[in-house]
Design brief:
5-stranded antiparallel sheet; 18 strands; Glycosyltransferase; Glutaredoxin; alpha+beta; globular
Amino acid sequence: MPNRLSQSLSPYLLQHAHNPVDWHPWGEEALARAKAEQKPIFLSIGYSACHWCHVMERESFETPAVAEVLNAHFVSIKVDREERPDLDDLYMDAVQTLTGRGGWPMSVWLTPDLEPFYGGTYFPPEPRGGMPGFIPLLKRIAELWREDRAGLVGQAGKLADELRRQATVEAGTERPDATWLDSALAQLRRGFDARWGGFGPAPKFPQQMAVELILVRGTDEDRAMALRTLDAMWEGGMYDHLGGGFARYSVDGQWLVPHFEKMLYDNAQLAGCYLTAFQATGEARYAQVARETLDYLLRDLCDPSGGFHSSEDADSEGEEGKFYVFTPAEVREALGEADGGRFCTAFGITEDGSFEHGTSVLHRFSCAREASLPEGEDQLLRERLRIWRDRRVRPGKDDKVLAAWNGLALSALARGYQVLGDPRYLAAAEACARFLQRELWRGDRLLRVWRQGRAHTPGFLEDDAAVIEGLVDLYEAGFDPAWLRWAEDLAKGLLARFHDPVEGGFYSTESGQADLIFRQKPGFDNAIPGGNTLAARALLRLSRHLQREDFHSAAEGTLRCFGPWMQRAPRAFLGLLGVLDLALRDPLEVALSGDPADAGVREMLCEVHRRFLPGRVLSVSGDQLLPLHEGRGPAGGRALAFVCRGRTCAAPVATANELAGLLQDPPAAM
């Protein structure tokens, strides 16, 4: 018999809809029941593509003995962390404070007043490997709640006070300077793995923000670190050599065996990294990886309505990675004896295997250079094997659409069109923006979640901010001013709902939210840039288009607010340090007066797009209605290019060659 989760939209919650546990979704009914019955809350937070969430469900939540204890003594609540990042952030801080580590599935016990008193991550049903068993733990907590409730409530109050203390931001008063950036680069140098690329030991994560910061700010030697990391990720098993796109992380230090789940946010950001690397180096392999990653988004994650789905699972048919790995016999079956043998040699597929059950993860780094396939044949055989692979049972997909992650995808696609020139990417970006406006915009605010025609959950800071920046990138790709105007409306709402006008920076949630014990203002960056990073960067870029001092001031105030934190722990603020780099640069403004479809304008745009120009602001308009175009019309029917660096402007030019001369030197960084 299904439980209350059967009415949810979340694919993660629906995975648990037939558990014998009497699950509730987070909401008024569950919270009121806990208060009325004075029972502790067991809060379980995870997400659809989480491998160990599936394991704990199979071992515990599908087990009647576990359900019996939970149903008798607790109000059990399931939360999809991707729908409610505010709850996830708050209670993850609690788990890390209690245990020194965190992860998913996250298991937290709360008082009816929502204050946490105990927590952890994955628990096996019985004690194993030094971990406490879930059933004995539940019984012990229930016993303590009966016999020493006052003690648990007091403990919870102290923990809540400690979490509030940790969340307090001691705001700085001055904008950080370039020495903050130098400290971050020095830390990255110390942590760099010179052999395999990446920063730090296994497990290795992509660290897109580190790569981007190095590419825009580092020395030539630093850039070699970033490029080595990009090459290693592409050569290794974390990259899907058949279908494009990247898995979440590598479990080992050489990027061979991935954790196979594929997330929209990783792939959107990594596509941007490889586009940046292509602009900085001109190396075609970076364009290839960006193109194949964007094509993965279009082929496998795009909803017919225009938005992009959240993730694909690591598991299929109950086994992690089964969809992605091969034996030599399978490759020969798909490609034939001769082609299959050469493909196995080129992609490290051996009889012994590199993964479970004698299977191999496709990768390039163990292949001798002379055994690699010629470019055309490489692409042809990879495509043939991908089509053969598609006959397998695919991993599960989380097909909900999240505003923030779609903002990242919008940026990636718009930039993909600018750099690679493929009109499919502009069309997909425009369709995504129209989807967000049609399905998630309510005239004065953005909603976060959409699935199967239904939208819900007021947007958080990261949602508004990521969509604003996506719209700026879309404007700089197609030059429809309507997208800038919508970005302006979103930015005004962002300031009204999330901004701290006293100390600077932004709260992640609106004020007055009854189901949060306090409001957070996180500045650090995780797998995606933090909300303050996204907001500061989006507002700074938008202010340069619209010449709005309030947007610029709020961005600068965020840098001041978190300045002391960036100085103390630069590795935790790499995205925000990237915003600092942008703020310290004299902006390079390129305003083209003319029709974006005009041949001369297109030639000049090609000159801009092929160059690596950190801090570049690009605008095209046939009229003079946007601030960058005031008093800057075409001359004698010819389009003109107006180029300014900081407060110094060059005389307008009318040809791509003349524009190239003005763009020769990159924007100066202070």
